[in-house]
Design a protein that fits this description.
The protein has 259 residues and is α/β, with parallel strands linked by helices. The chain has a single domain, classed as TIM Barrel (Alpha-Beta Barrel), CATH 3.20.20. The protein binds nickel (II) ion. The site of nickel (II) ion has 5 residues, from loops.
Length: 259
């Protein structure tokens, strides 16, 4: 019984029929819940529709840092309306990506700050994306009072000092397939150090497929490989890891999938 705390289920990579088959493979592999993540306003509308129609899916709605250039005056109220739906459990994914810079840094920072404010208005936790911007991400989370709603540092790929500060803000660390790659010692160190009641597992499908599927299209069924690796690193059973991460998600967003 596992929950994939962050996956992208819509978009050109998944036609309706393939989506159902993908979800069924995950369910057969023991995945009982999915947090489906929107990347812009349009995508978020569709993700919410999917979540409303699918009992084991909940939605995370927002504008990805790559899409921050699409942020405009009407985006926040439109998202707020969608986020009032009980199937919507997280705000995001939002944050800073200083690696790709697909949107200008000014646009990313604006969209990030606006989404933290939005999360506080609707009282829902954040889904944070951060890449090559650790200091700025933490600073903005602190400045905007993100501690009030907490959230997930998704696809955790920082180090122990970052993990400490994120935890101090009440955030949870979600580990992805990166944990199964070589030369990720700093991430593994944080994964072993983090308290059991503050960790999650995710795929970030369709990206970042874990070993032994690295390089292929990722899908939620593969969260089992992430969980197995995290359990191995921490020296606990996969069952204990699954139970803890499922409980953690419920503690954070109030939703536990029924088995
Ligand atoms: Ni993502």
């Amino acid at each position: 019984m596992l929950v994939d705390a962050h996956c992208h289920l819509l978009g050109s990579h998944l036609e309706e029929q393939r989506l159902q088959a993908t979800l069924d493979r995950a369910r057969a592999a023991g995945v009982s819940g999915f947090v489906a993540v929107g990347t812009d306003l349009e995508d978020s509308r569709e993700v919410l529709e999917l979540a409303r129609a699918t009992p084991d899916i909940r939605a995370c709605l927002g504008v990805h840092p790559h899409a921050a250039k699409t942020w405009e005056a009407g985006t926040s109220p439109a998202l707020e309306e969608l986020l009032r739906d009980p199937s919507a459990r997280f705000v995001g994914e939002t944050g800073l990506d200083w690696h790709y810079d697909f949107s200008s840094r000014e646009a990313q920072e604006l969209a990030f700050r606006e989404q933290i404010r939005l999360a506080r208005r609707v009282c829902k936790p954040l889904m944070v994306h951060t890449r090559e911007a650790p200091e700025d991400t933490l600073r903005i989370l602190e400045e905007e009072g993100a501690e009030e709603v907490r959230g997930i540092i998704h696809c955790f790929s920082e180090d122990l000092p970052f993990a400490r500060r994120a935890l101090d803000l009440g955030f949870y660390l979600s580990f992805s397939g990166i944990l199964t790659f070589k030369k990720t010692e700093a991430i593994q160190e944080a994964a072993v150090w983090a308290p059991l009641n503050r960790i999650l597992v995710e795929t970030d499908a369709p990206y970042l497929a874990p070993f032994p599927h690295r390089g292929k299209t990722n899908e939620p069924a593969f969260v089992t490989f992430v969980a197995a690796q995290l359990a191995r690193l921490r020296g606990i059973s996969p069952t204990a890891l699954a139970a803890a991460t499922t409980r953690n998600l419920e503690e954070l967003c109030g939703w536990a999938p029924s088995f």
